[in-house]
Amino acid sequence: MGYNYREEMVKDIKKYIVDNYMEPEPGMTRDEYEERLDDELWDIDEITGNGGMYYADEDTCAGYIGYGLIDLIDALEEFGFDFTHDMMDAFHAAPARYLDCLIRTHILYECVNKAVDELGYKFEA
Q: Does residue 9 lie in a domain region?
């Protein structure tokens, strides 16, 4: 099987949380914690590639995109692109690293949620 954006991002998010001591604060609800993570991880290159250095090099990202086409289409629509016109322009003009970043930012919150599940933190009701 090829590259799985969700599996890889969940793994990267969990590693980042542990390595950077980003456990939930006492009394924090799950929603508050996930929102904090979403905000903080949005521009971390190791997670989304949105910090300016990107997640990986151009060739690597180009290889990943083929496994995330549905997510790329969803991301383009979510971020306000007109699919019928902008999709072909995106493939022809945008660097693969940019398209990879679009996918990663689009699925970030979903992956944060799964990473928090897997880490097993307990939250206030």
A: yes
Q: Please tell me the least confidently modeled range out of 37-41, 83-87, 112-116.
A: 83-87
Q: Range of 113's domain?
A: 5-119
pLDDT of res. 55:
82
pTM attached to this predicted model: 0.86
Query: How many domains, the chain?
Result: 1
Listed residue (5, 2, 6) closest to 117, CA to CA: 6
- Vertex 20, ends 41 and 3: CA angle to 5°? 55
Strand (E) or helix (H) holding 5: helix 5-19
Residue 80 DSSP symbol? T
Would residue 124 count as lying in a domain?
no
- pLDDT at residue 1 is higher than 90: no
